[in-house]
């Protein structure tokens, strides 16, 4: 029960943080309020919120992703609105925090690793902006993410359930030796 409470608390904090970081950069008060309400409402819909009471990685997956997204929103607005120099210590600390949380999220589930190449491509596209061209922080983050992807991919390829027991082996080990299971599949027209 303590884990479920912690997951719920982390979810509330993450969705509120995303609502705050997004709404604070908007100029119109009505738009700020509407944005915050919509983000929090979406985060607390039953379809999203019910994952927070399940003892599994899904709740942590949502929370880490939402916090990472909120930090990325904060970083982008700080740089694009010129409140901070893109090499300032605040930006560097935000990027390091984002990188750590994004890496934890990416390593939480194997499938999240495949978001890293997309993120690297988006970083590359961002470098075409005049404000971000030759930005050392973005280049360093992209290189570090490439390293995380390679290490995560190598580690998961050796230990993954998906690569250790392919589908053919599953049929050989769990279906073919049992006539009742073969009959079950044939009953539904499967070869």
Q: What would you note in describing this structure?
A:
This protein is mainly α and 191 residues long. Helix content is 74%, strand content 0%. It has helices spanning 2-23, 29-43, 46-49, 57-80, 89-108, 115-126, 136-159, 161-164, 167-174, 179-187. Helix 1 runs parallel beside helix 4 and helix 5 runs parallel beside helix 7 (136-159). It starts with a helix and ends with a helix.
Give a short account of the largest sheet: none
Please estimate the helix content. Answer: over 70%
Low-confidence stretches: 163-167
Number of strands: 0
Radius of gyration: 22 Å
* DSSP summary: helix tally: 10
Strand content: under 5%
Which structural traits does this protein have?
191 residues; mainly alpha
Describe the structure concisely for a colleague:
With 191 residues, the protein is mostly helical. Helices cover 74% and strands 0% of the residues. The N and C termini lie far apart (45 Å).
Layout of helices and strands:
Blueprint (H helix, E strand, L loop, with lengths): L1 H22 L5 H15 L2 H4 L7 H24 L8 H20 L6 H12 L9 H24 L1 H4 L2 H8 L4 H9 L4
Helix pairs in contact: 1-2, 1-4, 4-5, 5-7, 6-7
